[in-house]
What does this fold into?
Amino acid sequence: MELLARFAAGDIEAFETLFRQHQCDVFRWIIRIVRNTATAEDLTVEAFWRLYRAHARFDPVAGNFGAWLRRIATNVAIDHLRRSRIEVPLPDDLPALESMRPGEQSEMRDQIVRALDKLSPNLRSVILLALVEEQPYAEIAQSLGISENAVRVRVFRGVRILRKELSRMGAHP
Amino acid sequence: MNDREMDDVKKLLKDTLKPAHDAELRRDLWPAMLQRLDERPIRVPWWDWALLACAIALFCLFPGTIPALLYHL
It folds into this structure.
């Protein structure tokens, strides 16, 4: 029996195989949105937990496992942003590039973090994926279950809000 | 907003936030997954319990409904 069919039937060994095959990809996708290693690890487990619970809904013949898993991972990450947007504003887990002086870098980083915090989780995730991580719009669209045009609109809206917030703080991009 | 303004914001974001595409998983998460699977046995939703309680109460109050129900099953 094929791996995906066994997974859909609830076979835990098939699930383990799929977990080991995909855990790194899921982790890398989630960390692009939540930007914290420990949180991304926890959310990777959460994403696979949701996947396992929904195994019976997966169609092993017509279903696209990778896309489905990516969608679940994105939802898990955005749910996390919704829950924690006030208390966890992008920690220093992922340091900035060395192109600025430390003082400048710290101040600008703080302003960017505060401006990003003004965005809704949906806009924030799209801005991070599209502008910081430079993921293709098609991939972002698939992971969110929206069209590429909707991604463009969200990027536009997000950038407009960021510019407004940064201007309000006296940082002119 | 024009393309240049968009590029300015993009450059600012990239200068201050390092892309995470080179982040690597530090450990195998399968043990944590197993723990998670063990922690949460399948739970019966509370409304299922409420429905069951209502059915039992109905059967106690009106025993005549039992054969009627069995007839329709």
